[in-house]
């Protein structure tokens, strides 16, 4: 049974950010949508169930709350969310994914993907999870000790570690991973005109990434749902006041396309929830000519390859890839 104390908690511990949110129209709309998500028969729940029909629990109200982010226009709601997480006001998850037992050969990152390739920006092409927001990218930063003299000026402009980070950038085995995504598509300029479309809001999350290490999820309530094979790497992230852990399993790397097929099992202790996801990342091509870029274009044949490969390695249940929308409204 749902504990109503979790509804009262933000009213007591997050009064100031809540008051700011209520005074802002877009944030108030978000609050109303979140409230609707608590009702099984609400329009918001039906809409999110249709959008996330490919995940394990389409009726999960958490996905309804994720979808409400589509209408955010400022960071006001995110500040309120951060207070909720930091104050211990998050209710335990109502649903938790079943992570797969990895039976395929897990590839080591260090000897599979060259360091100079891994370092830099990657676009997310596919996912099997709820993270289907457009324009997703991931930037990998190596430890300071691994920056090479041939690294570009941008790559050598290493950001400062976040306050919660313990090992990056000094530990030789620890990388940093920055994720970016939008809640809306960006309009493409048509001649001298540009389509009327609400400006997107960009979200950001940082991780520490520990190569060759694996989280032990055996003490979790749903411990039988975790993948137990030694992982390619594990990650640690703190976002909106909540810490999350992920075990990544690199299952396929194509050097010709510079793509990685990765399965990961994520656990969020604060809500006792597992998320099971598969994704395909492709390295961003910056200093390449038109022929090289054409050779890495996502053709229908290559799309078919990734979808087939994911099902071969993980089965239909965990390998059902969904295309991530690119940044532009018109391609």
Tell me what you see in this structure.
With 331 residues, the chain is an alpha+beta fold. It has two domains: 5-86, no CATH class; 109-323, Lipocalin (Beta Barrel). It contains eleven helices and eleven strands. The strands form two sheets. The protein has an eight-stranded antiparallel beta barrel with strand order 1-2-3-6-7-8-9-10. A two-stranded antiparallel ribbon has the order 4-5. Helix 2 packs antiparallel against helix 6 (76-86). The mean pLDDT is 88.
**Rg (CA only):** 20 Å
Distance from N terminus to C terminus (CA atoms, Å) equals: 47 Å
CATH superfamily of the largest domain: Calycin beta-barrel core domain
The topology string of helices and strands comes to HHHHHHHHEEHEEEEEEEEHHE
Mean pLDDT: 88
Shape: globular
Unreliable segments of 5+ consecutive residues: none
Structural class by SSE content: alpha+beta
Write the CATH fold name of the largest domain: Lipocalin
Strand order, largest beta sheet:
1-2-3-6-7-8-9-10
Integer tally of domains: 2
Percent helix among the residues?
25-40%
Instruction: Give me the number of helical elements.
Output: 11
**CATH architectural label of the largest domain:** Beta Barrel
Strand count, sense and barrel status of the largest sheet are: 8 strands, antiparallel, barrel
Q: What's the total count of β strands?
A: 11
User: What is the CATH top level name of the largest domain?
Assistant: Mainly Beta
Instruction: Tell me the strand percentage band.
Output: 15-25%
Assembly type of the chains comes to: single chain
């Amino acid at each position: 049974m749902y504990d109503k104390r979790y509804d009262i908690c933000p009213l007591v511990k997050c009064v100031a950010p809540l008051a700011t949110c209520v005074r802002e129209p877009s944030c108030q709309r978000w609050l109303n949508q979140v409230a609707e998500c608590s009702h099984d028969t609400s329009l918001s729940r039906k809409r999110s169930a249709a959008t996330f029909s490919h995940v394990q629990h389409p009726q999960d109200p958490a996905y309804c709350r994720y979808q409400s982010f589509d209408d955010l226009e400022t960071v006001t709601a995110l500040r309120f969310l951060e207070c909720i997480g930091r104050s211990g006001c998050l209710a335990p998850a109502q649903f938790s994914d079943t992570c797969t037992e990895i039976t395929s050969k897990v590839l080591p990152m260090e000897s599979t993907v060259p360091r100079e390739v891994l370092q830099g920006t990657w676009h997310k092409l596919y996912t099997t999870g709820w993270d289907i927001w457009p324009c997703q990218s991931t930037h990998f930063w190596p430890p300071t000790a691994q920056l090479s003299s041939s690294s570009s000026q941008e790559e050598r402009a290493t950001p400062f570690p976040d306050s919660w980070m313990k090992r990056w950038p000094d530990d030789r085995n620890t990388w940093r991973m920055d994720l970016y995504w939008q809640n809306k598509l960006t309009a493409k300029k048509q001649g001298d005109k540009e389509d009327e479309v609400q400006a997107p809001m960009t979200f950001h999350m940082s991780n520490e990434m520990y190569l060759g290490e694996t989280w032990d999820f055996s003490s979790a309530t749903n411990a039988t749902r975790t993948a137990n094979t030694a992982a390619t790497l594990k990650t640690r992230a703190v976002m909106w006041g909540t810490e999350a852990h992920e075990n990544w399993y690199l299952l396929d790397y194509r050097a010709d396309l510079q793509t990685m097929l990765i399965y990961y099992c994520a656990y969020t202790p604060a809500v006792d929830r597992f998320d099971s996801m598969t994704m395909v990342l492709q390295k961003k091509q910056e200093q390449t000519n038109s022929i090289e870029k054409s050779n890495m274009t996502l053709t229908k044949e290559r799309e078919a390859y990734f979808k087939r490969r994911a099902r071969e390695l993980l089965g239909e249940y965990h390998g059902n890839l969904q295309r991530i929308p690119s940044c532009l409204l018109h391609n």
